[in-house]
Design a protein that fits this description.
Number of domains: 1
Helix content: 55-70%
Largest sheet: 2 strands, antiparallel
Strand content: 5-15%
Low-confidence stretches: none
Distance between the termini: 30 Å
Strand order of the largest sheet: 1-2
Shape: globular
Number of helices: 4
Length: about 80
């Protein structure tokens, strides 16, 4: 269910493409685009998708800025990349 919500959310919402500059605790600076983060979310585990869907529902309900959440996710992705 989360996957279908996420697909619908990102298909229906006009989310402007941004580049998130995130620096990991190791000092590595990464540039990740909105589309990269969305792709990762759509291909994440069911548990991650469920959590992301719940957060996006709250952001959407309050007319919040989805980019704050996506930048947070980009930071987590960059930390994962550092560990490869």
């Amino acid at each position: 269910m989360s996957h279908s919500y996420l697909k619908a959310f990102f298909a229906e919402k006009p989310i402007e493409q941004q580049v998130y500059e995130v620096t990991t605790p190791a000092g590595t600076t990464n540039l990740l685009m909105t589309s990269d983060v969305v792709y990762a979310l759509l291909n994440a585990s069911d548990g991650i998708q469920e959590q992301a869907a719940n957060i996006l529902r709250r952001i959407d309900f309050h007319n919040g800025d989805v980019h704050h959440f996506l930048k947070h996710m980009a930071n987590a992705m960059a930390i994962d990349l550092d560990q490869l």
